[in-house]
Amino acid sequence: MTPTEWLARIRHDLVKRLVWPARDRRDAGGVPTAGELAPRLIDEEGQPISADDLWSALAAEAPPGADLAAFGAAVARATAAGNAGDVEGVIALEAAYSELARSLNHKS
Question: Which one of 3, 7, 22, 93 is least enclosed by Cβ atoms within 10 Å?
Answer without folding.
Answer: 3
